[in-house]
Amino acid sequence: MSNEETSNEYALPYIARDLSWVDFNERVMNEGLRKEMPLLERLRFLSIVTSNFDEFFMVRVAALKRLLKTDPGKIIDPSGLTPEQQLKTISKKAHSIINRQYECLRDEIFPGLAKNGLSLLRPEEWSVPQLDFLDSFFVGQIYPVLTPLRLEDDKPMPFIESRSLNAAFLLEHEPVNTPGAQSGFEIYPSEQSAEEKTTDELKIIVPLPGVLDRLIWLPEYDSVAANDENEKLRLALLEDVIVTWGAYLFPGFRVKETMMFKINRDADFSVDEQRDEDYVEAMVEVLEDRGRADVVRMVYSPGSDKLRDELARRFSLTDDYLYEVDGPINPVDFMELANVASLEDMIEKPWKIYKSADFNEETSVWERISQGDVMLHLPYQSFDPVVRFFQEAASDPQVISIRTALYRTGGAIPGIGLHSGSSAFSPVVRALEQAAINGKHVTAVVELKARFDEERNISWANRLEKAGVIVVYGLSHLKVHSKISLVLRRENDRVKRYVHLSTGNYNDRTAKYYEDICLFTCRDDIAYDAGLIFNMLTGYSSVQRMNRLTIAPMGMKRRFLELIEREANRARYKYPAKIMAKMNSLTDVDIIKALYEASQAGVKISLCIRGICTLIPGIAGVSENIRVISVIDHYLEHSRIYYFSNGGAEELYLASADWMLRNLEKRVEILFPVQDEGLRTELIEILNDYFRDNCQTSVLDSEGKWAFLSPAEGEKRFRVQKEMLSRAARISDVPTPAKMEYTIRRSPPTTKNKEQFYSD
């Protein structure tokens, strides 16, 4: 943080973006440290810390390291910190967080699991029967799959996959007079003498195959288990078994030292967007390059300084990028324990997902939307109506066209920030495929640049094309991050348009874990704007004036600045003025300057920001009227809600965009108003409830530090996500509006009707 005038163009109180992100991951870690939470729930948050750091180092730290090499003195952050200063601070903070994370795993989580019936046994704890079982298990099921890779000074480093686990072995040649010493495969040059061979140390890497389960359940037939009622389940780790019986891989050699490690590679690659004719091929090349990119970090277990130093040298890593952890690497693998029935008391019971009362089986989605706007609050309410929107569009003979913009559609790990592969196609993609097969005119704008989902998006985009869907691969130099769909349906001698807009992705998996809000509407003004947006995304078009929707990068930032300035002007004339906003991140300098100026004018500003916040609240004369909180809880907060009091004529907006430079200037995003009075009232209540939370909230102070908020003495506890769950339960009992009848067109449209349609 820098509050002083710097040599760069900025002169604002400003926290460095990447340091703020590290603070966010610390808040995630702090959830895992809370002793009152169930053990497996704590483990879930501690695992998310690891996943988050992996992606952070692969993208953000990789970019800073690259800049350090090319232009070390360049200041690219408004905090005034150079890349070197940021990297040093990141290293210090990240090492501290990871040390605390593993201290908790080692001293609280695993001992706690053992007390509750599940023991993770390390090699020194294995009984004789367990050793016999694991020896047989290794020989029969593990050994045949392993591939040892030798390290040689005069040859390139063997390929090591990013984020995968690997065992490293330091070997020495068995003495010549040892029986069987020369029976192994000779890996030395033949001209070496036997004496030279016996003094050399060899280094081998054995990648842990992804096809093998990391957790190995141990049988319960040993006497210790029989006499201990408190411990019913025992497991061992694949890496411990491989290290223990690794000598099987190296006949004629002795294992001197071992260690486990994983690496993070640079994933901050951009596709050549000028290659329009083979854009997919260009993206595939990016994915291939990413697999062999520079290493930015190594996480390793203690056990061998020689192996650590050799790998660090090979990967060109200094101490700042070496992370020793005294415990299992990649603890996210332990989350499969949540599916073990006997351990259900150690995880928070799944929260019920309620059906929306606005949709029922007797009424089509078109009938319901025609009666008025419908809002869903995910995951408190089911994602099913969104899937149904596409499925009914695919099968309804009156539907003639579907257009949609897809960013991520499935296969994401529930958690904060990490996405991982899944071969299953989402129900939305399947519905689009079926719609095309059924003869609908289907267009899908697919964003191939959705980081870590590129390969999956290419796969299902190819499948859609084979079914007859028109697939458009985004825009050059801009990510299409919008979440919008448009369905055209013949009704009453005209074509009626139905629109779905959302703050989150068309992803049925993350819709069970990510908090988002979506809107169904058939308002003509919004539908007209939606059509303009798709025309711009799929063809050539100058910027069109829109009625209700605002898009980035064309006008969204300007609109936000106008709305903030309007509140500031009201405050200057002593009228009440208020801004409330909920988002994932706040980093845009122009927005922050506008908020500071609004605060100085007297506007009361409340910001709920899950992750990065580079604004500093509470500074006298600058931001004393700004309050910033962050909610970390059971679900990942993901919706973007923006409220402006407007002198009593309140305006409420939802958006796919945060207040970040990348969202406002480098992506195609959509800001959409909530116009229905009932929905506006509901959204205002939701926003106010976030600022009432005193159970899962941290508050940012004027020093740029976060502090956990606890209920004051005598204050009633209020947990906003539990309140949202209760709200969903209450409104799920509200009766659905009566069925609405349609007049289905049976004859060709008249000339007048044609003219009316095309004039729209």
Gist?
This protein is α/β, with parallel strands linked by helices and 760 residues long.
Structure description:
With 760 residues, this protein is of the alpha/beta class. Strands 14, 18, 19, 20, 21, 23, 24, 25, 26 and 27 form a ten-stranded mixed β-sheet that branches. Helix 11 packs parallel to helix 12. Mean pLDDT is 86; it is low at 1-8, 180-198, 222-227, 271-277, 411-423 and 736-760.
Topology (elements, then pairings):
Layout: H1 17-33, H2 39-70, H3 83-115, E1 118-120, H4 128-142, E2 149-151, E3 166-173, H5 194-199, E4 201-207, E5 215-217, H6 223-227, E6 233-237, H7 238-244, E7 253-265, H8 279-291, E8 295-300, H9 305-315, E9 322-324, H10 365-370, E10 374-378, H11 384-395, E11 399-406, H12 427-437, E12 441-446, H13 454-467, E13 470-472, E14 479-480, E15 484-491, E16 494-502, E17 514-521, H14 524-538, E18 550-552, H15 556-572, E19 578-583, H16 589-601, E20 604-609, E21 626-631, E22 636-637, E23 641-644, E24 651-655, H17 661-665, E25 667-673, H18 677-690, E26 697-700, E27 706-708, H19 720-731, H20 751-759
Parallel strand pairs: 1-6, 8-9, 11-12, 12-13, 14-25, 17-22, 19-20, 20-21
Antiparallel strand pairs: 2-4, 3-4, 3-7, 5-6, 7-8, 10-17, 11-15, 15-16, 16-17, 18-25, 19-23, 21-26, 23-24, 24-25, 26-27
